[in-house]
């Protein structure tokens, strides 16, 4: 069986990754990765569907064992991307998409060299500021912090395989599909070459 | 100052990497990386030009400190690619090309995510066999071992950014130049985007 593709999507908060991703997923054979968390399950949560639920102690042991591509703590609860789940899925031929911040993305690339890294952002920082301010849900100092983080994150864009500029939603979804298709074709043609080289075809 | 490019070239023994590389280097602003070795300097050797010469003990300490992308032992002497030299060069804006085997290449990619990985090989294993046998310098069992290693290495081709098939020398050199130019343009356009995003242009 052929291995699945692993797509890593990063980009600043406010770049519109979430919206683009949910549109993208409608027509594609990709699954979002499932995170582990130490927060208590809430009504509607399902083990292994919404999250993998762990106790704080279990989560910390997983951290010590290097079992996460990345993890973070929000409001006293841990959230992380388990390596094993992602690797099992791609080894079983499933295509996985990870929405993950830049440092975590570099970790993924180190573990899975044929992962495809896509960086999504707004055309420029002014557009990003406008989008973040447009939400009207966050105090100005949170917005300023996010913009500062965005400038730091964008420095990593050069380490990514593809850059997608999110200007207009429909166009961006179609750009993302084209990028994924290009990456898929490249992998396919490489795999065909490997077979041909070995005289299997 | 802009960072230099780091190109990593891998491919089976007999794929013609050496010949292609020396043709490529004639017209390009790239330097080969300099290896460290524990072998004794010979007439004509120059410290820091042909090799970085180390005692066996110094070399082993560098191994323990993780100072090599890769190292190997031939005829009782160590040879290795020092991380610090490569990173210093690219940080000083120099373009470096590393000829390195597949496991080492994966190490480089983990340390330097924007390194450009190029895999070079013959059109198929039969051509490789013909080239290795044509050398008439090696016993048959060495050739069989090299072919076996080649089949293992080619499996990694899919983890590389570009695949270059070495069929005819002149064409391959021109393909390699085109691949390097594409990678350079991609980096340049990414860097321009980063500046534009930040409102610097």
Question: What features would you describe in this structure?
Answer:
Two copies of one chain form a homodimer. Chain A is of the alpha/beta class. In chain A, strand 5 and strand 6 form a beta hairpin. Chain A contains seven helices and nine strands, in the order βαβββαββαβαβααβα. In chain A, strands 2-7-1-8-9 form a five-stranded parallel sheet, sandwiched between helices. The first copy, chain A, is globular and about 60 Å long. Chain A has helices at 17-26, 56-64, 83-91, 102-111, 125-134, 140-154, 169-197, and strands at 6-10, 30-32, 36-37, 52-53, 68-74, 77-82, 95-99, 116-121, 162-165. The A-B interface holds A 106, 109-110, 113-114, 121-126, 151, 154-155, 157-161, 163, 165, 187, 190-191, 193-194, 196-199 and B 106, 109-110, 113-114, 121-126, 151, 154-155, 157-161, 163, 165, 187, 190-191, 193-194, 196-199.
């Amino acid at each position: 069986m052929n291995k699945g593709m692993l797509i890593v999507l990063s980009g600043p908060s406010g770049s519109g990754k979430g919206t683009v991703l949910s549109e993208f997923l409608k027509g594609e054979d990709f699954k979002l990765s499932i995170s582990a968390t130490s927060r208590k399950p809430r009504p509607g949560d399902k083990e292994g569907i919404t999250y993998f639920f762990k106790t704080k102690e279990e989560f910390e042991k997983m951290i010590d064992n290097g079992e996460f591509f990345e993890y973070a703590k929000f409001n006293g609860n841990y959230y992380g991307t388990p390596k094993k789940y992602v690797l099992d899925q791609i080894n079983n031929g499933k295509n996985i998409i990870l929405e993950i911040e830049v440092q975590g993305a570099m970790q993924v690339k180190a573990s899975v060299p044929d992962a495809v890294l896509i960086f999504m952002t707004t055309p420029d920082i002014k557009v990003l500021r406008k989008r973040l301010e447009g939400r009207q849900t966050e105090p100005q100092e949170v917005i300023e912090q996010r913009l500062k983080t965005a400038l730091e994150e964008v420095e990593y864009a050069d380490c990514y395989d593809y850059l997608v500029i999110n200007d207009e939603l429909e166009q961006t979804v179609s750009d993302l599909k084209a990028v994924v298709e290009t990456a898929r074709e490249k992998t396919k043609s490489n795999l065909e070459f490997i077979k041909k080289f070995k005289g299997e075809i």
